[in-house]
Amino acid sequence: MRAAAILGKNIPKLCATDSLDAFGSCRMCLVEIEGRKGTPASCTTLAEDGMVVSTQSGKLEKLRKNILELYISDHPLDCVTCPTNGDCELQDVAGELGVEESRYGLHGQNHQHAAKDESNPYFTFDPSMCIVCYRCVRACDDIQGTFALTVDGRGFESKVVAGQMESFMESECVSCGACVSSCPTAALEEKSVIKLGLPEKSIVTTCAYCGVGCAFNVETRGDQVVRMTPYKDGKANEGHACVKGRFAFGYSDHKDRITTPMIRDSIDEAWREVSWEEAIDFTARRFRQIQAEYGRDSIGGITSSRCSNEETFLVQKLIRAGFGNNNVDTCARVCHSPTGYGLKTTLGESAGTQAFDSVDKADVVMLIGANPTEAHPVFGSRLKHRLRQGAQLIVVDPRKTELVNSPHIRAAYHLQLRPGSNVAFLNAMAHVIVSEGLADEKYVNERCEIPSWENWCEFVKLEENSPEFLQSVTGIPAEELRAAARLYANAGNAAIYYGLGVTEHSQGSTSVMGIANLAMATGNLGREGVGVNPLRGQNNVQGSCDMGSFPHELPGHRHISDPEVRSLFEKEWQVKLHPEPGLRIPNMFDAALSGVFKGLYCQGEDIAQSDPNTHHVEAALKSLECLVVQDIFLNETARFAHVFLPGSTFLEKNGTFTNAERRISRVRKVLPSKSGKEDWEITMDLANALGYPMHYSHPSEIMDEIARLTPSFTGVNYEKLDRLGSIQWPCNEEAPDGTPTMHVGEFVRGKGYFAITGFVPTSERSTRKFPLLLTTGRILSQYNVGAQTRRTENTAWANEDLLEIHPVDAEDRGINSGDWVGIKSRAGDTVLHAVVTERVQPGVVYTTFHFPETGANIVTTDNSDWATNCPEYKVTAVQVMRVTQPSEWQKQQEVFNQQQSTFLNKARRRGA
Ligand code: SF4
Ligand code: SF4
Ligand code: SF4
Ligand code: FES
User: Fold this and answer.
1) Sign (positive/negative) of CA torsion 76, 82, 83, 84?
2) Is the CB of 20 under 6 A from ligand 1?
3) Distance between CA atoms of 832 and 887, rounded to whole angstroms?
4) Helix, strand, coil percentages for the chain (3-state, nearest 5)
5) Which residues in the chain show pLDDT less than 50?
6) Is the pTM of this model over 0.90?
7) How crowded is residue 231: how many other Cβ atoms within 10 Å of its Cβ?
8) Which one of 201, 306, 481, 769 has the largest count of C-beta atoms within 10 Å of its C-beta?
9) Do residues 64 and 28 touch, judged by C-beta distance below 8 A?
10) For ligand 2, is residue 139 a contact (CB within 6 Å)?
């Protein structure tokens, strides 16, 4: 079939599709081959040299028509009223063969009255339309890797079923939509298409959720998005998606969207809706007054990894050039700042080393503190695919995640370490590799700094770093750790993927360096199938860091104290830059509480919900004289704001995101901005009002400026992005089309540097008062602070944060699943529902942080990474007990929220 397609010969088909392996069930693709009997299916027949094949003949046509008539004898023939009329492969094939009716009649035994399954909020399954082609089953197995569907029964009784004859929602289906995309009929169909009709227009853009950065066709009808279908040529996802990107775009139209600027003098007052001019003028005046009274450094700003490269670049430019200080930080402070520090120190570049498809060549994958099937689902599916092909997996996680054991996947080792012991674990791995002679000395001699290597070997060989010595710290049996180290070190290609379970610790940066050390020592860097790969949480974490969002770094990760770099920017920006790094987010809070920091511009980031120790954060926000929030919703932070600038969703603007593999992809405007301005325009207006001129007419001009100023972006521009689809930086003269694999031949810093990674236990330990360790994570259906996903049908899967507790700890406390439990740390306490499960080990409890009503961060402390201040979200000593009512903090929040929503409603009523 493919050979014929290459020659431009179309063979009718129903069960074959280019995204799945051939299956051969529909028999529509029959051909005749000279010298062979019968009419084999062309989709499952291999082409051979010299083979003479007829794809069309009278005999073939007759056979195909007959098959099709059999199909349509059990298919509703109401194409005209069918929601996919004009977008149905069965209809296309019938048209091609000129079949309009069936000689077998339509009134025999059939499936026309089979009940529809409407359980999934996003798609419907109508068995009466099903031709049992198995495409959905194969898509779920081969692409998604969930194995939720089967065909039950034989012959006429054959039918597609989910789970154990359950509805889609009751089954293990994760609503990725792969089955819907592969269905050739309307049997599996998006509810939005049924409701709104088939789309008329399509634009390619990039998902605004996680750091995988999937490409999508946004399909619209009039001014409504009908559906988002994963784009086959998208290099990060190759036509696959997850429930968030594929279906959860409804927040863009949610009634909670705020589209008019608002101001107020104090947070105890109602909001006033005002014009853009008034809001911008009010903000600029307030900021200038504060600087006049408290000094130049009394204001700052926060960029967001949910915003585009161009937007974050502009915010840091506004702060450095317009505010005249370096008080800019980003939400990556609280997630992957240790990645930047750790990888820059050891390898010379603050970024992951591979493209996602590199994992297709890995023999062993070590997954540390990451849960990709929940948090990076499309990469999770790709990894599962590789594991089903035979690659081995080591999971290092305090919790039993899906990849430890799921259909057709079983990790070779699950090293269930104690929270807070990552560095001890990595040192023990290094001890085994060095002391058992498993290091790749040839590679190290060629590629790394030898004195650092020798020091490191001496260090890791110490008895105190042996798995036996550290067993009581890590909780990992020494023999198991030794076996895992041998598996990693002896693999042809071994790759490490890691997540926030590595970085969000008091030794987050040390762990990242420990990971890089392991990869260098075993020669696993600089080619495909290997590497050190941080899985970034939000869509543009890599990009926001690249764009100079940290107080010490100008775009391109160059230190602000470097006079040469500064002068480059000073020339372009026509302003003198301050050479000292500014305040990090936690320093801004401390400075606010001590009365020297008074104004904050916060774009697209909800620090009141996402940052640790909520009491501290809220007190700091309350002390500000001018808090400006630019967002699409009145988020938790905006309750403390004086100015609200309504932002745009990713559907309403142009720009670029950079995903976890350094891939820069276009975000394209599909709908007009509801507020009338794209976010970069708002920042530009503010700069102009502050007296620092900015003049851009399109984000492409901002990218041109980024390229002029940033060596790793020299070759990036919108024309090239449109032509190539996406580009992995560095993209410059040496690599005009980008760089899929980093550190080939040589590390960016020249020779790789082995950093000494001494283990320093966190001060956050379990005690008699707080005997359990709380660790946090994410779930598939919700995203970060949940501001977007909570406003979609994704709440059908999860509408609250839950506390996972081991049966032993639950029994000690008389806790059953579903009980209200109070969780208390030295920072604060909150109340949520419990789930008793063996996913967590005894002594460890786990929750997510997606719902403000729970406020998981009321409990987390302000302990942080020694190098970067990334909070220690993953280890908090807590006590858990059964309770019957919300915590005091929750009750106060309820009152405060009601007051704030009254203030908002007043503004809306006045506006109306
Ligand atoms: S639901 Fe669609 S893809 Fe699945 S077997 Fe039926 S027709 Fe084929
Ligand atoms: S939506 Fe995804 S997980 Fe669910 S049945 Fe379809 S392919 Fe499987
Ligand atoms: S995997 Fe991430 S980028 Fe891809 S669709 Fe899901 S949320 Fe979006
Ligand atoms: S397309 Fe070949 S058997 Fe269905």
Assistant:
1) positive
2) no
3) 9
4) 35, 15, 45
5) none
6) yes
7) 22
8) 306
9) yes
10) yes
